[in-house]
Amino acid sequence: MVCVIFFINRLLAPNNPNAEKLSSYECGEEPTGNAWLPFNPRFYVIALVFLLFDVEMVFIFPWATVFGSHEIAAQDVRWGWLSLAEMFVFLGILIVGLIYVWRKGDLDWIKPTPVVPHTDVHIPPTLYEQLNQEQSRFTVKAFNADTVVTATAAATPSAAATTTPPTEPARKPMFKPAFKKPANE
Fold first, then answer.
1. 28 — alpha (psi -120 to 50), left (phi > 0) or beta?
2. Which stretches are tagged as biased composition: Low complexity (predicted)?
3. Over the stretch 93-142, which tens digit does the pLDDT of each residue have?
4. What global pTM score does this model have?
């Protein structure tokens, strides 16, 4: 029967797709960027809170059936008061849960404004500009193994006079990256 209803819907429903209808849509947010990015957790929290209260409210219907039954009330008058007290306890628990979620801020749809950190350091902005200008003049020189050897020889004057240029090629660095697999835990 479900397949028949879907088939009839396919035959009768208008099919006018356009770019806006085919775009993704989630909880009132405009789609931006890649669809595989994780959603903000607040969507899941709101969905869970809605599901919680929606499912809890389903329990009111059987209560209303029992509370409104004149046959049960005719058997014993205490049934009416007992079911009324039970419903107030149930609704009280729901209201306490709603207040908890509300106070925690999980029902806020507005994105919070970011807090910009502030320090009480009084450094003049001109000092930052001067530092940036000094560091922007830094140039990276090409690496040459011969210049390293001669620079170390020039650093020690007594060794510079007696040392001749090395005949063996410069050694490569001894660093080898080793990636260890974590042990099965």
1. left
2. 155-165, 175-185
3. 888 988 988 888 777 766 667 777 777 778 888 888 888 888 877 677 77
4. 0.37
